[in-house]
Design goal:
about 725 residues; mainly alpha; two-stranded antiparallel ribbon; 30 helices; about 60% helix; Beta-carotene 15,15'-monooxygenase
Length: about 725
Amino acid sequence: MTTASDSQSPALAIPRASRIARFAAAARWALAVLACLWIALCVAIGPLYWAEGSIADWTQANSLYFVATFLITLSIVGLLVRSGRPRDAAQSREPSLWRSVVALVTQTLAERLARTHPRVDRALRTIATYTSSFARRAAAATGRGLTRATDRGWKIALILILGWLWVPTTLMSAFGADVRSQAREFSWAWNQWTGMKQPYIGFFSFVPMDIYPTAHYMWPSDPTYLTDQHNIVLTVFYGGAAAISRYLTDSNDAGFVALSVLQWLFAAFCCASAANRFLNLPWLRPAHATERVDYAHPERPHYLRPVDFSRPERGAVSSLTITKLRPQPYPNRAAGGVARFITLLMFLACPLVLFSTISLTKSPLFAFAFTWWFGVWYELLMTWRPGGRNPLDAIVRTPVHTLAAFVLSTCVMLISAKYAWYIIAAQIVLVLFADRKRWRTYAVALLLPVIVIHGGITLLGSTGSIITGDPIESRGVQLQMIARVAKLNPDGIPESARKQLAPIFNLDQMAEAYFQQDADPVKSSGIQSKKVSYKWRTVTPDDMKNFNSAWLEITKANPVIALDALLAECYGYFDPTDMPYVSMDYYVTSDYVQKSSTWLKLVNHDWRETVAKRARAWGAIPVLGWVTHGNFYVTLTLLIGAAEVILRRWRTLLTHFPLLLLMGVMATAPANNFERHMLPVAFVFCFVCLTFWRESRAAQAGSAANQDGTEQRPED
């Protein structure tokens, strides 16, 4: 007698597993399609918002932009997936369509020339043979030379320092309003510490905290002038340097130049460290490389090779550099000359990098620290090994220098950007599932800095030692929605919402201050021509409790206008055709440098204008100028991430997940297409491409190695 459980044959389980696999594949492709649709939407609505229009003004031209962009982006994802999937032997031998067409045309022309002009044909073949041979040898020699020149981190750092030397020596420093506000804060705090009486809370007083502004209800009763608006650690460091400069030279300029030089050196170190890890894979040649083979670490190659295979008595020599190591299988193969050239070209020629090295604002510092941090993550990715029954498999040691780099880069990220701790916290949660064996490493390098730095700053704010940032700073999208409705349809604001917002905002001033690219005017930020739309002097915590309900009510009553406000503030980050609202050359030629400085404005004043003008001219060139804009790298990185999802490269996606979080930060930032927010993604873009290339080659090599009669598990 058969039971119900016995009646289910194994044949019925296979279709169920197949259905699950197909559903999972469809879900992965759906995510990729959504990414392409989002990029297509951002590109299509660009012309509407350039003309300060609305999505309701959608025309056939916008539909054409949308369809064309969607097809292009989806094709890019498809090509990436095709290049990253394992191939069987027949597919690997099959030439591409482009090569087939070129071969057909070339063969046809060659046969016709051979029939009509045999002597010319022989001469051309001889020239082509010698030219091809010379080109191959020259390319190989150039690649070997470039590899030798960049096979160590200190060599890469030296190249960057020499290539960037003209930036601090001629441009000297670049900054905007932030560093001047930090210097002003520290100056007021120093005056307080030395006993000078200063105004504090009062209707006629105006202190540094009123510039951003920070609501008065957040100020402690005991006067304090330091805030966490621009990160308290940086405020003290930058402000202290400016104070020393004023004491020695009677101006801030020397201090700002010194700070720019220090950041320039830090940028060279961070970029060189990351490039060394991605290009040279230094964990393949540890300090004990002169020892015999370490069988506990099978990912490491043999570092000793015989001097002469025919004469073993001559002993062995050590292979300490990638130029001496035998080529390793992918993905453990060091980068070739082309990858090294493109990476160096990106860092040495892109204005995004050049201007960021000396720009004294928090985003470039965070971006360089993130680049350093990103390189450490790649090393952890490449040295990960799955657990097994062998006790040695459970031992995963992180080198001391790698752990130190991990800790320091995390700390710099935390002191330079407030949202860094969200990114780090998300990574902590993910690695608990993906790499539990190295939990001690992540506890020391990620969890401990968050507790000490973020927790310490929170403690300083709770004790009244400093003033924390105003929560209104994180509500930029909501403010833009309310302000746009107040400007375009003031009668559409429900009376109940108007009453709830009355203690917080002046709606008439919000409407006048509204600018679709930037939420700062609505927040009353700045010192010039301040419009009091945000009632920071009188607002209370109880008043703020009604903000979300009022915003939701206004949004429901005006959905199209609210959608316009949202899209107008974030579409530029994902639209390569959109020019930056504030590019990095702004800090080089800002009025704070060219007009308000003491002596810096007199040194190379015209040269700064010339450099910035040339950078803007390059960026204005269609297509060719895209490489100077951050949104170009953001868009391509999103497409590469979509391909990685389809290819199920989950462990790689773990290290690339912070890039997706950074894109979320961009979408909720107070300004549209603000180039400094895109710096981290742009700086590591070449490394993301190199990782994708290596893993694709590894997949293809593994597929070719498995063509021994065994059946390969399908990708989907």
